[in-house]
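ok so I'm stuck.
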Amino acid sequence: MTAELVRGQNHTLPQTRLEIRVSAGTPVVAGVMLADENGTVHGAEWVAHPGAPRLPGLEVPRQAAAGHRLAADLDAVPAQVHRITVLLALPTGIGGPVRFGAVAAPFVAVTGLDGDEIATFTLTGLDTESAVAALELYRRQGAWKVRAVGQGYAGGLAAMLADQGLNGAAELAHSIQDAVTRATARTVAPPPPRTPDGDRVGHGPRPAPAPDVPPVPAAPPTAPGAEPLTQPAPPPGTAATGGPVDYTHPRRQTSAPPPPPPTAPPAAPGSPAQPVAGDATGWSMEERLYNQIWGMFEDLARTTAAYRSAVEFAESRMDQELDRTLSDPRNRIGGAGDRAREQARAKRDELTFRAKEALDRDIAQLTAEAAVVEPALPTAYAGWDNPVWHAYRVPMEIPMALRIGDLHLPEATGLRIPLLVRLPLERGIWVDSGRTASGAAALADTAQLRRLAVESAVAHVARLLAVYPADEFSVHVIDPAGAAAGPLAPLVRSGVLAEPPAAGPGGVTSVLARLTRRVDLVQMAIRAGAADSLPPDVDTGQHLLIVNDFPHGFDDRAVTQLRYLADEGPSVGVHLLMVADREDAAAYGPVLDPLWRSLLRLTPVADDHLADPWVGHAWTYEPLRVPPGSRVLDDVLARVAAARRTWRR
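replied:
not stuck anymore, here's the structure
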């Protein structure tokens, strides 16, 4: 089970012999820095880097490379070391990029020696930084954990080392870069470009870029307020698309799983391939559909980025030509100036038209693919209006992922890409009941937004309950003021809740105390290797806590317990779903900021607040709606409740 971390999130490490794998679109320098329990780095000998690649229990590469493997044996790390920070930096003096904002977002994975991923982190949002603290491994209560850091430094290695209070930071940074420069001849270059088809199966090649259109520029910083989507990580050896930006989805499998069986005759030469559901690689149809959906998401992000870049280039070229022509005073009068303007605009329009043609072709192909894929989706990936729900049966095992909404871009508002999250959940959800800048939110009053937020949360919970085997997923609700009694009625009426919604400060305290105790006991049992010795009232199934109308009914102790559940709960099967307005919780300030950042923010109405990790597009998220007048949600909950009653007999 891979934990896909976001900045500030942590995860328990189940073993101490590890590899830390780094994937970047350009050669980077990798190293580690050790610190004691107070966070103090005692000298240059506490830093492993290409010039001094070994420390007790740790070894880093000796050169810059586009891919790295760092070895770690945490049992061999000296006892006085309590924190190990993984550093990445762009090499200087070899003619490469000078800021991370000009290259694809680096990806870091912590794996076991067998290659199985334990935790992953995509370092999005970097811009002028040339060095970054990517991850840190740290001791806590005798166990090791990993935290996603992502702290960048525009001043490079010297600024990063100085920030740790290291004496002689500038000299050490210079020696590291000097060691890298000496090893330049051995530097591993970025992976070569793939074929036009990439790893897509059954798709025609992408149209070649129009003449005079440059490569798509590097990913811009994420737009203010846009939360980066955490995507799966690349398997070892995955190739990347050539060019200055790697638009390849980081975890599209290309070699390990078998290719899909042929299900359609090949297309005639020169004609677009016919879309087929499940045409990606994978061991099962479910996995193939999962990979295909993320491939569609990647393709739409890439083709839209190319179109936007082409339009921007056409406008820039027109401005440059006009400036060059009109800089001569003789061209400012008479017909010469008018002709220059007309010619520049004509070239701009031609380039834009060709870019739009390429975009329309790609969108048409993706739209045709979506029309084939949507009806073939299994229950966990299907929308509420899919007929597959009418034949719903409680499953015997959990699926790979769950659909929690749809995404689209303004260039293709009719093309919806399902938003899938991996199961079991490794990241909680914050359903925002406050007012946002979207047009849909502006049309709704405060009371309506709060009601829609709870209804959206109930729909998410119903889907989670529906995809888990009977009695393996328990739901607890905290509704301190009873304000959500109406929207919560389907859950209460069906009998799928572990107990009635908790109300008042006493109810808040009771539920948080029970779940906190469960997290503590399960963590201790796992560390001791004694899972069979848990008390009878503590199960090892998955639990979801819904918190409505936060912070009403919460005191400081309850807030601390909530933070603890958000940080420690997912690793032992306790997950959080908040329904709250960020402004209502603003009084807690820094206490809740990490909680806000660690949860996946969703909205009850359409809102463009999610960003992809490649080019930073602001994607519009739309929640899944139950069709008006449909009883599908009530029917699904009734079947879940009936299966649970049968299971408990």
